[in-house]
Amino acid sequence: MSSEMFEGYEMDLQAHIASVSKKLNAQIPNYTGEQRKAAIRATEKELEQAEQLLREMDGEARIAPAAFRSKLYAKVTAYQDDLGKLRRDLKATMSGSFQADRQALMGDDYDSRSFDQRSRLLDGSERLNRTSDRLANTRRIAQESENIGVEVLAELDEQGNTIRRTGQKLHGTDANLGRSHNILNSMARRIVTSKIIMMSIIFLLIGILGIVVYMKLKKK
């Protein structure tokens, strides 16, 4: 079920990425004024929806079976890079739009230092976002490692229980073999005793028969 949800989110995310890329590369550069601002707002909203889908995919990857988790996390990381690039492109577009608006309003009195300050703020925000993404990746990797460690410990515990059960079965088998050995020894002793008794009886009968024959011959 987790894999099906992940694939559904992924299809929606791919559609959003394609739409945002089209707006940034083919539509917004051809717009001006209020049309450009409206397109930027729509693009930013759609990008936020894409980021929410990526968070849902990350949640599904966390609960996926261990055999598929690494593959799903690799996809999440790749989409994070794609969305990060789109976010940077959108900021650059917003920055260019802001500069054009200021120039249109202030004309030759436009203060380039204000734009430089704005650019530095955008750069700082971008670095902060990249740092946040790296921290999120680090937390995800740590969580994945913890989950793998828990699963490994559980498997080791199960294997330990299996080994202990096997040892108990072997111990029981050894006890049964010991009892069987004692029974065979007892039977062997009984067979030897029976043979001795039988041979004694045979020798006794032979002796009696010899005496009887001797007595008959002596009478004659």
Can you walk me through this structure?
With 220 residues, the chain is mainly alpha-helical. Helices cover 93% and strands 0% of the residues. The protein contains 4 helices and no strands. The protein is rod-shaped and about 155 Å long. It starts with a helix and ends with a helix. Mean pLDDT is 81; it is low at 107-111.
Offer a few descriptive terms.
220 residues; 93% helix
Task: Determine the mean pLDDT.
Answer: 81
The number of helical segments is 4
Q: Report the strand count.
A: 0
Q: What's the gyration radius in Å?
A: 45 Å
In short:
The protein is mainly α and 220 residues long. It has helices at residues 2-27, 33-62, 66-106, 112-219. The protein contains four helices and no strands.
Can you lay out the helices and strands and say which pair or pack?
Blueprint: H1 2-27, H2 33-62, H3 66-106, H4 112-219
